[in-house]
Amino acid sequence: MAAPLIVRTKEDMAADVQEVTVLLHDFTFRNPADLLAGLTKRDGSMPHDMGMPGMDMSGMNMSSGHDMSMGSTPGSMQMDLNDVDYDAYLANDRTLEDPEVVTVERKGKVRLRLINGATSTGFNLDLGRLVGQLIAVDGNPVKAVTGNQFGVTMGQRLDILIELPESGAFPVLAQREGDAVRAGIILATLGSKVQKVSSTASAKSAALNLALRMLQAIEPLASRAPDITHKITLTGSMRPYMWSINGLTWENHLPLKVSEGQRVVVEMVNQTMMAHPMHLHGHHFQVIGIDGRPMNGAVRDTVLVPPMMAVSVAFDAKNPGRWPLHCHNLLHMATGMMTEVVYDQYA
Fold first, then answer.
1. Is 171 part of any domain?
2. Which bin fits 346, alpha (ψ -120 to 50), beta or left (φ > 0)?
3. 3-state SS of 195-215?
4. pLDDT digit string, tens, across residues 207-265
5. Percent of the chain whose pLDDT exceeds 90
6. With helix as H, strand as E and coil as C, how does 220-269 read?
7. Is the peptide bond before 171 cis (omega within 30 degrees of 0)?
8. Which of 187, 206, 225 is the last residue of a domain?
9. Pairing mode, if any, of strands 322-327 and 276-280?
10. Can you say whether the dihedral through the CA atoms of 178, 180, 181, 183 is positive or negative?
11. Distances (CA, A) of 250 to 51, 60, 231, 332, 333
């Protein structure tokens, strides 16, 4: 159950640009509880009080505040991908068997607002014959990056500006990482012939990683030394299927304590063989380091932490409350990969 919420600036409203919103999903006919049970019972069962049914989030603010390329995993170990094979992959609730066809103006401009609302599927976005400029991530503007392929993990949002070069029909496809299946929409000028697009690509796509590490915020955080640094380790495995932070699941988690007004740094070290899209509610953070190398990265609220890598983010503690910090692969969150950022007065 999900729907887009678009907040437009005055500049957005005045721009001569057609907006096209695409919400990606993975879909199953199975009962989600049965699906999760099948994962957790493959090699040992998950305790009955763990996961979604037993998650007590009372007092927590669940509403949000307001990288891709492929490469081998360090060492010779094999990266894990795709917990579940879903029955369908959707773009605006439709498969490529009957895709949404959006009428666009010849040589017009389109702002593609892409949202990955999937439970546990990352996608490689392919613009085909079109070239776009990535201008915002997670609702925050970035210095434009030009290309026609972009990765988007669970929970992330991309704004891509496209200038249509000619009349025709232009598929915009989202292919499941590490697989050939895909979803998408078609942008078509009036009167253009729209041909059927297969829901299976000719080759599997590669895994998402941090190829877009070059992203830079247009409005970065003010330069300031951190007042407090929290280091967390992302832990868990596919067998037994259980995911955690610092070896602790939600039921016995240790909150990350902060004080209002602090500059907070969170270093996330992934010790698993699966990537984790880590999402903080109530705040935007800036990506400031990858594997110990400083950077002046994008401001966002969801960042992918690839296997056996570390990503550091910084934010200003200016929204008091108890805020979830969790993996946006919701099956990982359900089995325990979740903690919270807690301000002093709510501890």
1. yes
2. alpha
3. CCCCCECCCCECCCCCHHHHC
4. 997 766 789 999 999 999 999 999 999 999 998 999 999 999 999 999 999 999 999 99
5. 83
6. CCCCCCCCEEEEEEEEEECCCCEEEECCECHHHCCCEEECCCCEEEEEEE
7. no
8. 206
9. antiparallel
10. positive
11. 8, 13, 17, 11, 8
Rounded Cα distance, 219 and 193, in Å: 42
Which two structure tokens, joined as six digits, stand for 246? Answer: 């610092």
Neighbouring C-beta atoms of residue 95, cutoff 10 Å: 17
Domain assignment present for residue 71? The answer is: no
Residue-by-residue DSSP string for 43-74: TBPPPTTSSGGG---TT---SPP------PPS
Rg (CA), the chain: 20
201 & 225 share domain? no
6-51 residue pLDDT tens: 999 999 999 999 999 999 999 999 998 899 999 988 544 443 333 3
Write out the two tokens for 280.
Answer: 């903080």
279-310: pLDDT as tens digits: 999 999 999 999 999 999 999 999 999 999 99
Q: Using a pLDDT cut of 70, give the percent of the chain over it.
A: 89
DSSP 345: G
Tell me which of 76-80, 181-185, 197-201, 250-254 is least confident. 76-80
What is the domain range of residue 224?
215-346
Q: Which residue has the tokens 């705040």?
A: 283
Q: What is the mean pLDDT of the chain?
A: 90
Phi, psi (deg, nearest 5) at residue 81: -135, 145
